[in-house]
Amino acid sequence: MCFLILTNLNILKTSDIYIEQQLVCKFISGDKSAFEAIFHHTKGKMKGFLKKVVPIDEDPENVLQEVYVKLWENRQSINPNNHFETFLFSIAKNLVIDIMRKRLNKQKYLENLYIHIKGGQNNSLDTLAKIEYSELEQKIFDLIEKLPKKRQLIFKLNRLEGFTYKEIAKKLNISENTVDTQMRQALSFLRREMNIYFSILILLFINR
Fold first, then answer.
1. CA torsion 100→102→105→111, rounded to 10°?
2. Any residues with CB less than 8 A from the CB of 29 and at least 6 apart, and which?
3. Which of 101, 117, 148 delimits the end of a domain?
4. Residue 187 belongs to domain with CATH number
């Protein structure tokens, strides 16, 4: 049973969002029309929040849907006398944390995979791991080929062939500042495209 502590106008203020406590009680009891009303009241602010915190290559709409699925599944944990928005946004924050944790776990796995392969322990890797490494490396090479020709050449000379900025500048008859600028732009492009894989991106092209 849903017990209310009545306030003036019997309305719970949640920042700019107002949810009637009686509506929350109906939602807790499984009223789908109450759920729809809550969704329409809160989705705008929730969408704005998710756009700020969800990783760039993650679809905020998918996370938005998952937030409200979780809200429905956990509705009986809601205390209608507490701020409803606090409960709702705690679900969203936990989902974002889960997304980031999964990404970090995958990143750590790939880093360990790189260490194994570069350490000459290829034979100890299972087939799936070898395939994942191969796909990752191919993706990086594909992205490098998308760089402008001059930037691509500078990047390859530095990361693949081990030339210093000074040596590249002399070889191509350009300034070291130009080399530095081109490398920064190349790495910025790769960072955007690779996202969670970026931390091992440089490792893959050092001391090859």
1. -80
2. 2
3. 101
4. 1.10.10.10
Query: What is the C-alpha separation between 178 and 169, in angstroms, rounded?
Result: 8
Residues 6+ apart with CB under 8 A from 106: 196
Count of C-beta atoms within a 10 Å radius of residue 124: 10
**117 is a domain residue:** no
Q: What pLDDT score was predicted for residue 201?
A: 46
Q: Is residue 191, in this structure, part of any structural domain at all?
A: yes
By CB atoms closer than 10 A (0-12, 13-18, 19+), residue 7 is exposed
Q: How many Å apart are CA 70 and CA 97, to the nearest integer?
A: 14
Helix, strand or coil for residue 37? helix
Its pTM stands at: 0.48
Q: Which domain holds residue 183?
A: 126-204
CB of 35 within 8 A of CB of 27?
Answer: yes
Stretches where the chain sits below pLDDT 50 are: 4-18, 121-122, 124-125, 196, 198-208
